[in-house]
Amino acid sequence: MSIERVFAAEYGRAVAVLVRVFGDIDIAEEAVQEAFATAVRKWPETGTPPSPAGWIITTARNAAVDRLRRESARQDKHAQAALLRAEDEPVEEGPVRDDRLRLIFTCCHPALAPAARVALTLRLLGGLATPEIARAFLVPEKTMAQRIVRAKAKIRDAGIPYRVPRDADLPDRLRAVLAVLYLIFTEGHTASSGDALVRDDLCAEAIRLGRVLAELMPDEPEVWGLLALMLLVHSRRDARTTASGDLVLLADQDRSRWDAALVAEGQAIVRRCLGWRRPGPYQIQAAINAVHSDPPTDWGQIVQLYDQLLHFTPTPVVALHRAVAVTEVSGPSAALKIVDELDLPSYHVFHVVRADLLRRLGRTEEAADAYRRAAELTDNATEKAFLRRQRESVELKHPKE
Amino acid sequence: MKNYLLSVYQPDGPTPAPDVLGPIVEALGALNAEMKAAGAWVFDGGLFPPETATVVKVKDGEVGMTDGPYVEGKEHLGGFTIVRAPDLDAALEWGRKLAAATTLPIEVRPFR
């Protein structure tokens, strides 16, 4: 196994173990990075050890202990305290849970700002470097570095606990964790700005973390629902754009370019979720995507699923997506009636949907206006180009067709 | 164990009528008793309105005083409670109870 693969697979686990042992995120991170640096030097000569993860954790642990000994010799009280904990490692109390799970809940604590939760999760569990995270979220590197430093300081100074919350608090806290993973995924799926439509590495990272979470919390249907949702959406990544990078709508996609393995995995999870009969918003969205992955789309079923989703998340955005499905079942004028009652003036998708309905109804001038408004509201270059072409195509047509 | 300051922020203006204030005072009393029973209570106190505040400053060895609070705003610090808690989650749980009792926003902050 290459060091890169070991890094991607084991970085988060190693940091999580070291945080538990030393009770300090910075010490854990530095020690794990040092261990990987040592691996880069040694493994080419000695060969990859039989248990790369074990090697990394042991090496990192020794590096941290060495460092703390050096620092405690300089009368550093903080380091002495941490060393004490390292030598007197407490036995695992209560049900044994994976260290990564505790670290995910720590990173996604509601006392941290949402942007900091995302950054910390990517950094500590995904092993992404600060400049990479800054690039992915289009903020200056300095801003991202400050965000991470401040979040780590708050965890330490305010005493944010390193543990999975009690059962009573779990649903609320799990929601925050799932929201962070989905945010990482959606940022990768449709970058809020920039030239490329998809940032594959972010999607892949969100899915990898989703798999970790599902492995750690196998009895939570919503965790599986989110994983299935991400797999099904990601399966269509290659078909979403043309060779020249233009956007292709779901109905026009070349299905042979969908990733069949991801579709099959996602659909199997959705079927398993149905058996649990504990529906939630991620499971329902996964089910909607499962229906879409099984053409021809059963639009009646999609409308029903959106009715269920509205029950959980009664937001205008969900109502808007439901209206798109209503178009296929009851026609564009029924859908437009729903859309025109929604208050989403600054959401570009609202104008895209409205434009499409107006176009279908032959109201081309209004459709062109709506496409123009939509294009103004997105910063993604690929989407902008797509919307401009749509506008031009309705403007070319005779106003009354 | 850490100490946390739970600050009560209240809007400027007159004291609420007794029928509004009565249940709040009662709920606060019950919460303080609960904190003491749990060993979490360190100290608590309510403050007179911000008009009663005086700010003292020393500049070039000269002591200056100004009437009124240091920060003028639409809300002011109305009172506070100090609790001992093992971690932020435990402190936030007291904060949640204090917010429910006072019907006001509570800032939870660790002591250094």
TrEMBL record, chain A:
Coiled-coil blocks: none
The RNA polymerase sigma factor 70 region 4 type domain, residue ranges: 104-155
Biological processes annotated in GO: DNA-templated transcription initiation
Domain RNA polymerase sigma-70 region: 9-72
Keywords: Sigma factor, Transcription, Transcription regulation
SUPFAM superfamilies named in the record: Sigma2 domain of RNA polymerase sigma factors, Sigma3 and sigma4 domains of RNA polymerase sigma factors, TPR-like
Family recorded in the similarity comment: Belongs to the sigma-70 factor family. ECF subfamily.
Protein name as annotated: RNA polymerase sigma-70 factor (ECF subfamily)
Automatic annotation (TrEMBL), chain B:
Record domain YCII-related: where: 19-102
Gene3D superfamilies per record: Dimeric alpha+beta barrel
Coiled-coil regions listed in the entry: none
Similarity comment: family membership: Belongs to the YciI family.
Name of the featured protein: YCII-related domain-containing protein
Provenance organism: Kutzneria kofuensis
